Amino acid sequence: MSELDAITEESLVTKGGRKWSTFPGSIGAFIAEMDFGVAPAVRQAMRELDEHDLYGYAPHALTAELRTATADFYADRFGWRIPDDHIQPASDVIAAFLGVLTHLTPAGTPIVLPTPAYMPFFDVARTTGRELIEVPMRRTETGWSLDLDGIAAALVPGATLVLCNPHNPIGKVYSEAELLALADVVEDAGARVFSDEIHAPVVYGPARHIPYAALTEATAAHTATATAASKAFNIPGLKCAQLILTAPDDRDLWTQKGQFVSGAASNPGILATTAAYTRSRDWLTEINGYLKGNRDLFTDLVADMLPKAVFLPPEGTYLAWLDLRGYGLESGLADHINSRAEVAVTEGRLCGEVGAGHIRFNFALPRPLLIEAVDRIARIL
Ligand SMILES: Cc1ncc(COP(=O)(O)O)c(C=O)c1O
Residue 119's closest CA among 358, 370, 348? Predict the structure, then answer.
């Protein structure tokens, strides 16, 4: 038994994080946080922040360390050596996305989004007044694939295709062949890619994360990549993401216009991210092992207890996308589950038109609570 199994609902409620305080009485399986705390080196970094009185603007040396830590992590883990000066801080991935759209793409160009998709991508489109074109993923018996014809039809010159890899909420990890095929479509259209790789450190073998911008000269030239330690190392409240600009023109534009986005990365976030990437890799290995066990357990539980659910085990992320249409409840599904089963899940409809009758379930729970959550859902459906 892992010590993570022993984390109790009571202790999580007492801590009072958003996952456990938003819906009192419910098991928190919605927002993408984990119940497993943080790595010791991250806690140490927070103590050092205080010891060194780092309450002022971020010293340049800290930002330089963040860049090197990010570059080393990407090189060691994904085999891509990014020059330090291609890496810019940001407060979070969504702020980086907003900055990329505003400063690096032609005004008024559309966003093309394979769906189901991470909910705030829709909000960003609304905030920026950009047209958002949903292109549903294709679902086969064995997996998901991009609808390349649909994407080609939606893309126009200057448009931004959002690639979420690993793909929240379906957990897909894209293969090299899939990414290269997508790159051809993007190049033919004269479009761009925003590659959100925030979940890249949480991939279960044999799947392997491949950074899109690293593939070819063309992908480097048409892509802005964003990542963060926040999901894998459980520090989203500390506010630090990394924007990787592989196109020289983007770097020039960012120097002129990106200062407010980059300046919003916080000292705690910068320090914690550096500690995560450099000194928390064993912790990540342990957590990924536990998550893989949870993924497999969840797969078995769904097969046993929710026989009408359709589910493909994710290759990455700690999120599960469950098709519950077999139970005949298309609208208000998450509300129904939350109020009747007391399990707080994410409404699938928020992930796009294709999400009706689906939920997103965060399985980064202690195992006894994971079992309890599926059992509660099964009893009310
Ligand atoms: C795919 C994806 N992108 C971005 C985010 C949000 O990241 P941030 O808090 O850095 O904006 C999340 C959070 O769950 C996510 O899953």
Answer: 348
Which pTM was predicted? 0.98
Helices vs. strands in the chain: H and E counts, helices first: 15, 15
pLDDT of residue 200: 98
Is-contact 277 75, C-beta < 8 A?
no
Please state whether beta strands 223-227 and 111-115 pair in parallel, antiparallel, or not at all (unpaired). Answer: unpaired
Measured from the CA of 118, which atom of ligand 1 is nearest? 1
Q: What angle do CA 343, 347, 351 make, to 5 degrees?
A: 145
Residue 96: CB within 6 Å of ligand 1? Answer: no
Q: Which fold has domain 3-31+281-380?
A: Aspartate Aminotransferase, domain 1 (3.90.1150)
Model confidence at 175: pLDDT above 80:
yes
The domain spans of the chain are 3-31+281-380, 42-279
State the residue for tokens 């989203």. Answer: 236
241: Cβ below 6 Å to ligand 1?
Answer: yes
Q: Please list, residue by residue across 196-228, b when 16 or more beta carbons sit within 10 angstroms of its beta carbon and e when fewer do.
A: bbbbbbbbbeebebbbbbbbeeebbebbbbbbb
Q: Is 92 in the pocket of ligand 1 (CB under 6 A)?
A: yes
The letter for the amino acid at 119 is M
Q: Which atom of ligand 1 is the closest one to the Cα of 32? A: 14
In the numeric block, the tokens 């080609």 are attached to 152
CATH for 42-279 is 3.40.640.10
* Cα distance between residue 92 and residue 266, in whole Å: 10
Q: Give the span between the Cα atoms of 262 and 265, in whole angstroms.
A: 6
- In DSSP terms, which residues pair with 194 in a beta bridge? 162, 224
Residues 251-282 pLDDT 10s: 999 999 999 999 999 999 999 999 999 999 99
Same fold across 3-31+281-380 and 42-279: no
